[in-house]
Description:
Helix content: 25-40%
Oligomer: single chain
Protein name: DUF7477 domain-containing protein
Number of helices: 16
Strand order of the largest sheet: 1-3-2
Radius of gyration: 26 Å
Pfam families: DUF7477
Amino acid sequence: MPELRRGARRRGRVTEPPALNQQDKKQSRNKAVAVAVGVTERPRTRLAARKLKEEDKATKEVVVVVEEEEEKIVMAIGNDSGGSNKAAAAQEEEGNTAPFPERVKLCIWLWGTVRYASAHAHLGRTASRRDDLESLAYTLIFLHRGRLPWQGYQGDNKSFLVCKKKMATSPDMLCCFCPPPFKQFLEIVVNMKFDEEPNYGKLVSLFQDLLGENPAIRPINTEGAQKIIFQVGQKRGRLSTGEEEEDVPRKKVRLGVPATQWISIYNARQPMKQRYHYNVADIRLAQHIERGIADGLLISCVSSCSNLWALIMDAGTGFTNQVYELSPVFLHKEWIMEQWEKNYYISSIAGAANGSSLVVMSKGTAYTQQSYKVSDSFPFKWINKKWREGFHVTSMATAGSRWGVVMSRNSGYSEQVVELDFLYPSEGVHRRWDGGFRITSTAATTDQAALILSIPRRRLVDETQETLRTSQFPSTHVKEKWGKNLYLASLSYGRTVS
Length: 498
């Protein structure tokens, strides 16, 4: 993995670089290809190098310097092992690092600019080999094209905007002016699993045809890579040791076609009565709630889509009384504080695209104190602070692009983490399930989805939990789940596909 050292180069007015002629383009391509094979082969063949010394000829290290518009990047390509965290799968603590920092960790020892960072690095997650290779892919594409689509963003939310653009840019779009191996490399990398061991031989062999036959004219020494290519032989991606290329088709991510869906969470419960309503207009909300209360049901979950409400009521909430407010503002502070004085606590919230909100407050909860925050971006730092004070997230909602998060003391959770992404974080959810976590809250905007996963203090009798993503409200699926004693526990509508 190349090290990206940022050097401050102050200039006057920045001008666009001159257009490359055919010879310049060929040199850029050759440089990118040589870097690709020179860097990718080293993790497979050598031990990690703690210090890179350009003048140490014995290590055969090579330094490639690339001049940019405003900065100088030095890629020291040495005897590294990929820079990934081999134990990352067991050590990952995504909930302890705030996403979208100004500087991001590109791999285990390396900090760099957001331009080349992997999407998971932007989101504050522990780096794996997949992330090292994703950063390398962006570097190679920059070397070939001279620019990346997410350059030029400024301001406090620069990292958020860069990550959003990366997730919205498909390999087809990003590599449309690059030779096919660049796209193939990126597609393989971004579709890898978190703890997957890369097939370095396959990745190196992608560039075999572009490398050329004469090693003497290459920008860097690729002797080690040539040995791997020789091993690979005529069949790409298959090593002489007998490793076979996977034939199992994978579900691709980053298609460049974003989509929004319903995210519904189902928990195993003892048989009980549950009722749902969806596409409910403001004027019809009260009659549905009053009818449910008359039948012995209370609100367990609320959500919104297209300025219409979804309402879940059941007989298993454990609440003794309930009040609610439909407000034209997102989380009406005065009303909430008034209900707190009466010993009601927020049990569910929802926000609409037009900025209005539905807040449900209940008696009979175990909560002893609550705090909430409304923010233009996901309030991760505030959540982290409240975790240290003994609070846990108990409700979430969005209104347009704004987030509302409610945290409570005495929530019944011993541990909690956040999965925040520009698509439904399926991989993270399954890994958390394996660690004993269960989804306890969810919310989404048209850009992002956030899931709160918690470990209950008391072990559940039945820990079964299932999730669904559907374009329409999952009315048919809800009834099917009831037949298996699975009941709707959380619901949101927003981004699920990038």
